[in-house]
Amino acid sequence: MSDKYDVVVIGSGPAGYVAAIRAAQLGLKTACIEKWKDKNGKGVNGGTCLNVGCIPSKALLDSSHKFHDAHKAFEGHGISTGGVTIDVPAMLERKNKVVKQMSGGIGGLFQANKVTSLYGTGKLLAGRKVEYVDNDGNKSVLEAENVILASGSVPVNIPVAPVDNNIIVDSTGALEFTEVPKRLGVIGAGVIGLELGSVWNRLGSEVVLLEAMDNFLAIMDQQIAKETQKIFKKQGLDIRLSCRVTGTEVKGEEVEVTYTDKDGNEQKQTFDKLIVCVGRRPFTEGLLSGDSGVNLDERGFIYVNDLCSTNAPGVWAVGDVVRGPMLAHKGSEEGVMVAERIAGQKTLVNYDIIPNVIYTHPEVASVGKTEEQVKADGVPYNVGTFPFLAIGRAVAADEQDGMVKMIAHAETDRILGCHIVGPSASDLVQQVAIAMEFGSTAEDIGMTVFGHPTFSEAVKEAALAANGHAIHMPNRRKRK
User: Fold this and answer.
1) Where is the chain membrane-spanning (predicted)?
2) Annotated binding site for NAD(+): which residue ranges?
3) Structural domains for the chain
């Protein structure tokens, strides 16, 4: 193994492996170091996202939705199934197969693109040197013209609910329940809490989400957040806002949670399992030597500029370990940008147009600014909304919950943001992201021919509604 490289990447999650592949495609001699091991102690690529994050959670979300439909929705379609049961170990086995297939795929891509895949840990030393310790404990030093740090993030732990990986678990443990808990508590009603809570809710758990914030999904457009909360309540999710957990006590095979409610009163609730989902933090333990020259900001993220360059020359950082939303696709695009910048290209990431998705059912998705943000900016704007209840395809598919909201500049008609709760929201919002990338107006989308009947007609109608031209619902009268 040669110890000299053009690029050494530490971390093979969505930011790191994409950076490594793109760098190799551009003719740069590239190595990628990954510390993740499977249950057999074998090194695997993909980081959190592929192994215990995006991919396995979507596998369980899909399985639980199919079960929910068979259990509660088929009858309305005239389909009789008899008694439907869920085999949780079989569901987990399928999830594990999906993970193995996807992480194995990265290994294949590394091979095809001639990326050297190294399993073990990497630490950045001074002068763009990387200390590599393989999984057998052998130590060597790699020299690189450029180093890309892509070490990702880990769940935040809170002292009042220490994770024991049995009764109290984090987001990783919540993917491994071998049976459906009767009573499930979730601390945090953010993206991860909602996704995991909805998996087990569909499978039969009584789910209570305790959220410290006063507003539900505070990061989302609040009109869409309120609509989403209404839908989830109808599904049986018990979401309690302004509730701060103050203590937990494991008693045998259950846990008693103490929390302060919105009125300041102390409450107690007992659960069979408790998931702690209070956010994630950048992972930098053991990553940097004291003389590496790389600085962290006040929140523990690696400090980078707009181009993901650190304070140390030739050292870059991408993904969850740097500022910005902790989203796999954001990290991947940063990885591409850095690889291309190293190769002399002038690539940029448009941080204003990064879609955000919650993979519940229905999905919740957004791109661009919320109405609250636009209002705070003092920009004149128009809003168009359109319910899926008025979309033929949605009604035929029994997917009529939710709506599309389009926000456009009142003078230029340029699209400023789009927010959706409803069927295929993740794919529908991407249509608007493409339009925004090209500087489209609401009128441009309104003039585009959309197939009928499709879910995406709701996007067109919301764009038309922004200017008072919606066809399939009465338009709001404009204020004079």
Assistant:
1) none
2) 188-195, 211, 279
3) 4-155+281-342 (3.50.50.60), 168-278 (3.50.50.60), 356-465 (3.30.390.30)
Q: In sequence order, what are the beta bridge partners of 267?
A: 259
Q: Which residue is it, tokens 């294949």?
A: 108
Cβ contact 379:409 at 8 Å = yes
* Known catalytic membership, residue 65: no
Annotation: binding site for FAD = 58, 122, 320, 326-329
In the prediction, which pLDDT does 273 show?
Answer: 98
- Alpha-carbon distance of 480 to 477, in angstroms, equals 9
SS3 390: helix
- Per-residue pLDDT tens for 408-426? 999 999 999 999 999 999 9
Phi first, then psi: what are they for 264, rounded to 5°?
85, 5
Q: Would you give the DSSP letter of residue 110?
A: H
3-state secondary structure of 406: strand
Element (H, E) at 194: helix 191-202
3-class DSSP state of 381: strand
Structure confidence at residue 480 (pLDDT): 41
Q: What is the pLDDT of residue 478?
A: 62
Active-site position among 71, 409, 419, 452: 452
Would strands 139-149 and 4-10 be described as parallel, antiparallel, or unpaired?
Answer: parallel
pLDDT at 82: 84
Binding residues: 58, 122, 188-195, 211, 279, 320, 326-329
pLDDT along the chain (480 residues), means of 10: 87 98 98 95 95 96 96 92 93 97 96 98 98 97 98 97 97 97 98 98 98 97 98 97 98 98 97 98 98 97 98 98 98 98 98 98 98 98 98 97 98 98 98 98 98 98 97 78
Across the beta sheet with 183-187, the strand order is: 168-169, 273-276, 183-187, 206-210, 238-240
Q: Which two tokens stand for residue 63?
A: 């399985």
The alpha carbon of 262 is separated from its chain's Cα centroid by a whole number of angstroms, namely 28
Torsion of CA 94, 20, 155, 262, to 10 degrees: -100
